[in-house]
């Protein structure tokens, strides 16, 4: 932490709004001193922004360059809107962008081909599906930095207190367990205790949750890889009806306004039995000052009934270089540094984020520091991708249809049947 605090010195900050490994650091090149403007992670999401800013400054010190760090908005949807303004105006004000895993088709026209800057043997060390996801029309739009997957967080102490031997296997079991624990804790005097918190705010976060709910109940992936729109089915409707039943019962009515941090703050304060969130919340909860440190664990998200499937929405963030950058070589050097094995290992240990290099999952330091990493391969095996590849540059329209209509269901403004029909209508419109 001292290193992080002492590394801000010459860093200019602007805000948008709010295994043993073979060293890759030897790839750093001697380049003339340049200023690289890096739109990195948000200072409003855990420690991610502060950590990223500090590591970028380490690169600057090693290479005699300068970094101007730009903290992106905490909300992914707001981030994309701002990025589109930069890209649409062909602005050179940002050189390196941190982009979502689902934005490859949108970002491709505005990105350099990283195959020109990263050697093929280095590219081959990453998860193949990540490289495939980030490749559009043969061009490598971005380098994978970390993988995200939806997780179920649960209080081990409270499960034991109320007679449960393990976490729920189905959403129905979760609702039953959450209600019992919530009632018990409120009766004991904690009147604000919640059974289950999740991201219900109308944004990309809710799209991720909705994709998990629908897939877990056997409702498919909204749009199949062959471009068939399959979302209008009874299982998808049941998934949204189930989520609606949580609001005001095991979840607060205000869950429809929660993003990741709102859910995490309630969870980490000790006021929830279960939480759906991303891996970044794990090390924050285990901080020695956290009231839930040593009292929780993570597992796969529940199935939709006994015949359902586990589903973890595939997420993650990537690093792209703007096609309008005036310092592409220095920018590429920063990208290579941040995605190196050494930095990804540090990323995982200090922030709990999933590496994009498969060999790191066998690293004994990581397995010791983050015990749940031993289950990461199983969780990653149950990931479900959002239909961003099949929709390309139109994905944002589909996602907006998903989260707006799911939000209406959570707020009792629309039936699940009507919501699914509206999502189907937009899906058919955007499929190329």
Write up what this structure looks like:
With 432 residues, the protein is an alpha/beta fold. The protein folds into two domains: 205 residues, Periplasmic binding protein-like II (D-Maltodextrin-Binding Protein, domain 2, 3-Layer(aba) Sandwich), CATH 3.40.190; 210 residues, Periplasmic binding protein-like II (D-Maltodextrin-Binding Protein, domain 2), CATH 3.40.190.10. The protein contains 19 helices and 14 strands. Helix 2 links the parallel strand 2 and strand 3. Helix 9 packs across helix 10 and helix 10 packs across helix 19. The longest helix has 17 residues. It is globular. The termini are far apart. The N terminus is likely disordered.
List the helices and strands and how they pair.
Layout: H1 2-5, E1 12-15, E2 35-40, H2 48-63, E3 66-71, H3 76-88, E4 96-100, H4 104-107, H5 120-123, H6 128-133, E5 135-136, E6 139-140, E7 143-149, E8 151-155, H7 156-161, H8 171-187, E9 194-197, H9 204-216, H10 234-246, H11 260-268, E10 272-277, H12 281-285, E11 296-299, E12 312-321, H13 328-338, H14 341-351, E13 354-355, H15 364-369, H16 376-381, E14 383-384, H17 388-391, H18 395-410, H19 416-430
């Amino acid at each position: 932490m001292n290193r992080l605090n002492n590394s801000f010195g010459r860093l200019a900050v602007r805000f948008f709004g709010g295994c043993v490994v073979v060293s890759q650091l030897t790839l750093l090149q001697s380049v003339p001193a340049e200023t690289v403007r890096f739109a990195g992670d948000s200072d409003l999401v855990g420690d991610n922004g502060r950590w990223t800013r500090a590591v970028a400054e380490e690169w600057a010190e090693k290479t005699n360059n300068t970094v101007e760090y730009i903290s992106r908005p905490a909300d992914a949807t707001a981030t994309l809107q701002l990025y589109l303004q930069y890209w649409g105006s062909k602005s050179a004000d940002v050189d390196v962008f941190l982009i979502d895993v689902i934005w490859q088709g949108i970002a491709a026209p505005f990105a350099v081909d990283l195959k020109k800057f990263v050697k093929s043997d280095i590219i081959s060390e990453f998860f193949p599906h990540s490289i495939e996801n980030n490749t559009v029309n043969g061009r490598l739009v971005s380098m994978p930095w970390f993988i995200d997957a939806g997780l179920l967080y649960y209080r081990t102490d409270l499960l034991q207190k109320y007679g449960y031997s393990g976490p729920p296997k189905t959403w129905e079991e979760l609702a039953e367990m959450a209600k019992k624990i919530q009632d018990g804790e409120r009766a004991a005097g904690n009147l604000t205790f919640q059974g289950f918190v999740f991201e219900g705010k109308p944004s990309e976060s809710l799209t991720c949750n909705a994709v998990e709910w629908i897939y877990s109940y056997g409702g498919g992936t909204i749009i199949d890889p062959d471009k068939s729109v399959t979302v209008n089915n009874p299982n998808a409707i049941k998934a949204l009806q189930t989520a609606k039943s949580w609001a005001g019962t095991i979840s607060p009515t205000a869950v429809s306004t929660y993003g990741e941090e709102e859910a995490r703050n309630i969870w980490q304060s000790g006021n929830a039995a279960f939480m759906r969130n991303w891996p970044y919340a794990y090390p924050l909860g285990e901080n020695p000052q956290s009231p839930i440190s040593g009292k929780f664990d993570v597992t796969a998200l529940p199935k939709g009934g006994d015949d359902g499937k586990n589903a973890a929405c595939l997420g993650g963030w990537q690093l792209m270089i703007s096609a309008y950058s005036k310092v592409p070589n220095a920018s590429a050097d920063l990208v290579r540094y941040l995605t190196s094995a050494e930095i990804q290992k540090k990323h995982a240990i200090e922030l709990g984020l999933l590496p994009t290099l498969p060999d790191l999952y066998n690293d004994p330091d990581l397995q010791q520091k983050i015990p749940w990493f031993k289950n990461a391969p199983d969780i990653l095996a149950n990931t479900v991708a959002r239909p961003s590849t099949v929709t390309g540059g139109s994905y944002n329209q589909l996602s907006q249809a998903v989260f707006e209509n799911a939000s209406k269901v959570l707020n009792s403004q629309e039936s699940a049947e009507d919501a699914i029909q509206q999502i189907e209508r937009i899906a058919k419109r955007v499929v190329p």
